Amino acid sequence: MSTAVPQKKKVSWSNILLGAGLNMFEVTTLGQPLEVTKTTMAANRGDTFAAAIRRIWSRGGILGFYQGLIPWAWIEASTKGAVLLFVATEAEYYAKVAGAGPFVAGISGGVIGGLAQAYATMGFCTCMKTVEITRAKQSASGVKPPSTFQVFADIYRKDGIRGINRGVNAVAVRQCTNWGSRYGLSRLSESLIRSARGKDKDAALSIPEKLLASALGGGLSAWNQPIEVIRVEMQSKTEDPNRPKNMGVVGAAKYIYSQNGLKGLYRGVTPRICLGVWQTVCMIGLGDMARSAVERITGEKPAAKH
């Protein structure tokens, strides 16, 4: 009995550009406000949700929720989305060729795609976004604050490449667990929905079913919030004389636990869940549907592996 070989989609520029476009849409709509909110709560762990909202509003009104969007979040979004869709799609296909089921193949694609994101594109962008969200704004006392590019140059002059990539290992752990969970749990949710609706295992899902599966995958992936809080602490410019200098992942975890206990490692989890849902709906739910639409428009067909 022959085993069916999974079909492989052709690598195309349309797929890479689609990933960049979807991530730009995600971050410019709900993504950055949710990012700012959860980062503010993770950096100021004594704040309630309402206090964090007031803190953000005091830094520029509605524009406070978009700090770090231009240029850092846009640079990050326009590159990491393309990397994710390209690498994760390839890795998921080869995992299926090796005999993995949808759940394991989805996790494999997400983990490898997330690692590629972190080290290829996200290090300095994520660091600078966090710096912008957490640094003091002297303008309140009549002193014009340095521009974001001046801050970037100051960090580079002081600490070099390591400085502008501070926390990149924590970003890598976050990204591989993020997208491993999101892809894996989204594919598992798709399988469960097909089973519940009596559909064949390869049957296409409706748009509401696809979005529901993506939302479940995104929301449940917030289990790794402690590594996100650790990442924020490592990159934060919040002033605290008691904080050790040049902390690594383990040192940051110990410091957060000593200051705020176990609950400190889960600060900002609510906006993180919302962000995870929105990102996953955009990059997996809308991404799968958009890829299918592009294939219909361009006439591209999945190419069988020979």
From TrEMBL:
Membrane topology, as annotated: Multi-pass membrane protein
Subcellular locations according to the entry: Membrane
Keywords from the named record: Membrane, Transmembrane, Transmembrane helix, Transport
Pfam families: Mito_carr
InterPro entries reported in the protein's UniProt record: MCP_dom_sf, MCP_transmembrane, Mito_Cit/Oxoglu_Carrier
The family this protein is said to belong to: Belongs to the mitochondrial carrier (TC 2.A.29) family.
Organism: Tortispora caseinolytica NRRL Y-17796
SUPFAM superfamilies given in the database record: Mitochondrial carrier
Repeat (Solcar) residue spans along the chain: 209-293
One GO term of the biological process aspect: mitochondrial citrate transmembrane transport
Protein's recorded name: Mitochondrial DNA replication protein YHM2
Membrane spanning stretches: none
GO cellular component: membrane; mitochondrial nucleoid
GO MF assignments: citrate:2-oxoglutarate antiporter activity; DNA binding
